[in-house]
């Protein structure tokens, strides 16, 4: 199968790659996979119902094939024209300058057939301007080059001849050792475990033989545990439980390392002109990109494990990026460095924000009463723990000695006060050129760097306790929504500080 030459991309309307029907049909069937499997298992003794289920799957696949055949696109006169739909047909005219984020996603079948899935997003976020499933590699590369900065010549319908592009500059790579460190730190093995438990729970009722097999495997362990418990071999039981927990934790770390290797294998961050491109993935290869002027928030994060291994993580939000809950969120540029040394992370920050040095910024402290204000939350926690301990004592008819209660309360109060003071000493904000920087945290430290021009709204909040203490909280939302909550959330500001920051951010928003 062949597709039209990529050089004619702007001359006339083109269809997707001839293999697109396969991916469109599989995408339609994927949404009905679980209902169809349940239908087959529940009615497996009735051939008429099975035939009806097969007919439904065939019609669903045929609908996907027709949708792929009706999809056409053309680039000309500075716009992307997309025609799609079968019964309800739509024609979209998208100005090329509106398309800010371009990403590719290639699974094993994509690589086998030499095709890719191209996703085009604008600064508004949400639904993409175009989702081309699928294009040939040559057509996708030329379309991406055109959107990367090659403009159409005035009065022409095709792309103009551009000067040869400069070679891409590699900013960051991840070796196998770095991937293993990232797996140890991120602990994403819980996701693999949760997925396995979910799959087992979904198929439990349909696999009675597997149910009995698992029960037979666990029966000797259950009998041994009951026998040792009856003999009151507490030391042996304690050692066994600790060994089982250790093995489980090690297994989770192994799963986490495997997840990191599969997702970030071959990670490479490149700079081509003013565009950043990140490519990674072992089975499913993802290539995401964004222009430097469209970066609206950077987040440098250091957990306790990061600091022990002298590593950190650098995230990014791009104007037009939607929340992680949307489909294909993994195909967006969300991380400039899943793991990096502090020196590498600061070098990447200087590429995105020229002249930025976090250690020399004029940091301003928060309200002087921040530590005392944070102690209110610790006091509520102490009260809840005390009530829980007293309730357990009453249920077990054993009263905890008052020195233990008083000593525990004093220890809790001292730890909470030390944590609140350390948090207040570290927290602060600073203004650098066109960027606003906010840092916070103790065990997990975060530096949030936002560009006020890329924000969409700003608000001041205060609770009754805040009003009494003369504090306010500043929150700001980004264009298209931040990928993880609010774009900026600064609490424990004095009223004067909060209003000054609000006026600064709002003036930048109005100017933009």
Quick summary of this structure?
The protein is of the alpha+beta class.
Can you give a write-up of this model?
The chain has 512 residues and is of the alpha+beta class. It is built from 15 helices and 20 strands. It has helices at 20-30, 33-42, 47-69, 108-113, 137-148, 176-186, 189-203, 208-230, 234-264, 304-308, 342-352, 370-396, 402-426, 464-469, 495-511, and strands at residues 14-15, 72-76, 79-84, 90-95, 99-106, 115-122, 130-136, 169-173, 268-272, 275-280, 285-291, 295-302, 312-318, 335-340, 428-432, 435-440, 445-450, 455-461, 471-478, 488-494. It has a seven-stranded antiparallel beta sheet. Strand 15 (428-432) and strand 16 form a beta hairpin. Helix 12 (370-396) packs antiparallel against helix 13. The longest helix has 31 residues, at 234-264. It starts with 13 loop residues before the first strand and ends with a helix.
> So how many helices?
15
Strand content: 15-25%
Rounded Rg: 28 Å
The strand line-up of the biggest sheet is: 7-6-5-11-10-9-8
Strand segment tally: 20
Q: Characterize the largest beta sheet: strand count, sense, and whether it forms a barrel.
A: 7 strands, antiparallel
């Amino acid at each position: 199968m062949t597709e039209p030459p990529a050089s004619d991309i702007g001359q006339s309307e083109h269809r997707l790659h001839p293999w697109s029907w396969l991916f469109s049909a599989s995408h339609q069937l994927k949404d009905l996979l679980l209902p169809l499997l349940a239908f087959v298992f529940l009615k497996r003794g009735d051939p008429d119902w099975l035939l009806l289920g097969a007919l439904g799957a065939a019609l669903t696949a045929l609908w996907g094939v027709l949708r792929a055949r009706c999809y056409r696109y053309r680039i000309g006169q500075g716009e992307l024209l997309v025609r799609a739909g079968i019964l309800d047909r739509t024609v979209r005219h998208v100005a090329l300058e509106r398309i800010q984020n371009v990403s590719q996603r290639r699974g094993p079948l994509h690589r086998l057939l030499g095709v890719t899935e191209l996703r085009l997003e604008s600064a508004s976020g949400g639904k993409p301007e175009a989702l081309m499933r699928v294009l040939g590699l040559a057509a996708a590369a030329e379309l991406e080059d055109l959107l990367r900065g090659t403009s159409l010549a005035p009065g022409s319908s095709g792309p103009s001849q551009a000067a040869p592009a400069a070679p891409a500059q590699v900013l960051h790579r991840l070796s196998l050792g770095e991937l293993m460190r990232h797996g140890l730190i991120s602990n994403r093995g819980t996701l693999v475990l949760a997925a396995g438990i979910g799959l087992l729970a979904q198929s439990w009722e349909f696999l009675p033989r597997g149910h009995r097999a698992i029960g037979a495997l666990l029966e000797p362990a259950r009998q041994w545990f009951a026998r040792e418990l009856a003999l009151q071999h507490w030391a042996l039981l304690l050692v066994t439980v600790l060994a089982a927990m250790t093995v489980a934790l090690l297994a989770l770390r192994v799963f986490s390392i495997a997840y990191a290797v599969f997702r970030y294998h071959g990670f490479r961050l490149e700079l081509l002109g003013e565009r950043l491109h990140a490519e990674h993935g072992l089975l499913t290869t993802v290539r995401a990109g964004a222009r430097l002027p469209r970066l609206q928030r950077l987040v440098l994060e250091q957990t306790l494990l990061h600091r022990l291994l002298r590593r950190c993580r650098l995230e990014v939000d791009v104007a037009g990026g939607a929340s992680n809950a949307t489909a294909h969120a993994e195909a967006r540029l969300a991380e400039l460095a899943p793991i990096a040394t502090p020196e590498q992370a600061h070098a990447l920050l200087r590429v995105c924000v020229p002249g930025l040095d976090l250690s020399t910024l004029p940091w301003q402290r928060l309200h002087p009463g921040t530590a005392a204000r944070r102690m209110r939350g610790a006091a509520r926690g102490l009260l809840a723990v005390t009530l829980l301990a007293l309730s357990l004592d009453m249920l077990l008819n054993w009263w905890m000695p008052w020195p233990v209660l008083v000593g525990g309360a004093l220890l809790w109060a001292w730890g909470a006060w030390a944590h609140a003071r350390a948090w207040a000493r570290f927290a602060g904000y600073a203004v650098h050129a066109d960027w606003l920087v906010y840092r916070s945290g103790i065990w997990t430290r975060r530096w949030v760097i936002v560009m006020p021009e890329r924000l969409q709204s700003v608000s001041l909040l205060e609770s009754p306790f805040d009003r009494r203490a003369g504090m306010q909280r500043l929150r700001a939302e980004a264009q298209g929504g931040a990928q993880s909550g609010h774009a900026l959330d600064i609490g424990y500001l004095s009223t004067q500080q909060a209003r000054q920051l609000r006026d600064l951010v709002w003036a930048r928003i109005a100017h933009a």
